[in-house]
Request: fold
Amino acid sequence: MTTGTTTGLYNSLLTDLVRKHCKREGVDMPTDGLPAEVADALLQLGKLALEALLRNETLIDFTEVKKANINGELLLKLGVVSMEMSASKLHPTKQLNFSHKTMQEFLAGRYVAHAVVNQDIVELLQLTSIDKALELRN
Reply:
């Protein structure tokens, strides 16, 4: 894995965060790739990250994480997101905040790449409408 690119840098950062988590939690770190539970949680977070980007948002409501059956506690322990309360005084909600917007974009990109490689294009197309795609093109 090369760190000569932003993607390489974020891949290295993600691997280091997972390695640190595995050591702290006493979980075996595979020599190739990420532990299955971690890889799945990050992939699902990538999908939510993409959906949020398409809505022009950087925060993800924690209820979305629960709805998608994602291990939110694991994501918090990894350090790729942090928890914060919404600004609403009447109806405060828990929200996940990415460490940086580029981390959100990276995770969304990992999800898109995974979907393309696994030919899940239909799932990607369901995330946005034709109107939205045309709007982004212009």
Summary: The CA atoms of residues 15 and 114 lie 17 Å apart. The first strand starts at residue 59 and ends at 61. DSSP finds seven helices and three strands in the chain.
